[in-house]
């Protein structure tokens, strides 16, 4: 009898132990894909609210909520870009019925969709970007030849100039080879059902993060608190990351073309060092947004994204595909389907390079957002800078096979917001 009792006890304990192991294994399977992608091998889970690295004794000034009149006069222009972006798509209707079955996969958290092919982002060299510019190792300079000189036609036609930038984007990824997307199902802008069963990115080549301009760009993305109205604290190391990024992209064809173009127009200095300082100031200098001075920058808004805290929370900006990939990998982004104007009459596939989507970022919804997929950081920065200095609020241009409106909002001599809208 004692032997029988002992045997039953061993079976019960053994099963319980195995159940515990299975539960732990299941938990690891849910979180490991995000940890692998980010290279985060910490034992403790990082809470979603931990937006940025904190330096010792660093204080973040949330600031007070501005009055209604103050918001309408000083910050009301920032509301306009998001409204116009939604309205641009509201004017177009679907020529197909929504297929709106609820996604009942059982996950409750943002970023609940598992990636199909977990990949590691190589971040080993990112710490080195915090060094002084004189201690950095940069890529080779692109040879300056006649192909980088703007033609007379390009100097008089912004669309031709933007298309030349597209042709000069030698670092642009190859669809189907360097990345594949799972676009899911289409939806209307105000439809809240999740029409995507999987993550947007099906695959992305690991070689992407070995490209110097790509990796330096990604190293900048965690330097900001995306809550609008929170005063930014930029450390010395982060400023050196900014300088290193500008130096790296300044060796590429799109930025050299931009300099030639703006200097011929009398907008930028012929001196390349002065031009690089102008780019740094334009994209990284802080200004007030959401009621607090020093709370935003063009780079943060356009590429990283921000979350409005006034009234109903809303994601603004956030138009960069690399930021989307990394945040989706960390489980902070939940892709919810694509938005396609009716008159295009086509469905985006796994190799598309211009995509209009809807998603949630840490539980906050972005009803409509458009992004150029696979383009290099230097191309995007050159394109938006060119439209800011030479273009208007609406800039209808051709980028390879895509007809695009580069929407550009100014705040004095600063970039308020700039993003692409797919034309029908």
TrEMBL record:
InterPro entries: ENDOU, EndoU-like, EndoU_C. CDD domains: XendoU (cd21159). Pfam families: XendoU (PF09412). Belongs to the ENDOU family. Residues 154-424 form the EndoU domain. Residues 16-30, 71-87 have a biased composition (Basic and acidic residues). It comes from Hibiscus syriacus (Rose of Sharon). It comes from the Eukaryota. SUPFAM superfamilies: EndoU-like. Residues 137-154 have a biased composition (Acidic residues). Keywords: Endonuclease, Hydrolase, Lyase, Manganese, Metal-binding, Nuclease, RNA-binding. Residues 1-154 are annotated as: Disordered. The keyword Metal-binding applies. Its cofactor is Mn(2+). GO terms for molecular function: hydrolase activity; lyase activity; metal ion binding; RNA binding; RNA endonuclease activity. The keyword Signal does not apply. Monomer. This is Beta-amylase 3.
């Amino acid at each position: 009898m004692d032997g029988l009792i002992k045997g039953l006890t061993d079976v019960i304990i053994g099963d319980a132990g195995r159940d515990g192991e299975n539960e732990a294994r299941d938990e690891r399977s849910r979180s490991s894909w995000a940890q692998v992608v980010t290279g985060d091998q910490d034992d403790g889970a990082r809470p979603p609210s931990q937006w940025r690295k904190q330096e010792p004794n660093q204080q973040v000034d949330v600031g007070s909520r501005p009055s209604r009149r103050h918001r309408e006069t000083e910050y009301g222009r920032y509301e306009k870009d998001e409204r116009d972006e939604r309205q641009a798509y509201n004017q177009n209707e679907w020529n197909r019925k929504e297929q709106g079955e609820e996604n009942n996969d059982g996950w409750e958290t943002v970023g609940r969709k598992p990636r199909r092919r977990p990949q590691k982002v190589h971040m080993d060299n990112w710490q080195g970007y915090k060094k002084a510019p004189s201690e950095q190792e940069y890529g080779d300079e692109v040879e300056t030849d006649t192909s980088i000189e703007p033609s007379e036609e390009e100097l008089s036609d912004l669309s031709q100039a933007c298309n030349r930038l597209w042709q000069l984007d030698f670092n642009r990824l190859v669809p189907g080879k360097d990345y594949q997307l799972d676009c899911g199902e289409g939806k209307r802008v105000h439809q809240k059902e999740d029409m995507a069963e999987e993550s947007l990115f099906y695959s992305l080549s690991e070689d992407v993060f070995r490209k110097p301009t790509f990796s330096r760009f990604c190293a900048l993305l965690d330097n900001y608190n995306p809550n609008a109205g929170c005063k930014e604290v930029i450390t010395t190391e982060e400023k050196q990351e900014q300088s290193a990024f500008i130096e790296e992209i300044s060796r590429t064809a799109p930025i050299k073309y931009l300099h030639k173009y703006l200097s011929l127009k009398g907008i930028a200095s012929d001196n390349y060092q002065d031009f690089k300082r102008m780019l740094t100031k334009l994209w990284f200098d802080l200004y007030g947004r959401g009621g607090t001075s020093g709370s935003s920058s063009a780079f943060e808004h356009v590429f990283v994204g921000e979350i409005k805290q006034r009234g109903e929370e809303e994601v603004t900006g956030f138009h960069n595909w690399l930021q989307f990939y990394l945040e989706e990998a960390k489980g902070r982004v939940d892709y919810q389907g694509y938005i396609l104007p009716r008159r295009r009459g086509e469905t985006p596939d796994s190799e598309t390079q211009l995509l209009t989507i809807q998603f949630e970022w840490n539980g906050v919804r972005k009803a409509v957002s458009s992004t150029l997929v696979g383009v290099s950081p230097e191309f995007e920065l050159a394109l938006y800078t060119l439209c800011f200095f030479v273009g208007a609020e609406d800039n209808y241009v051709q980028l390879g096979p895509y007809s695009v409106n580069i929407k550009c909002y100014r705040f004095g001599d600063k970039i308020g917001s700039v993003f692409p809208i797919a034309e029908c």
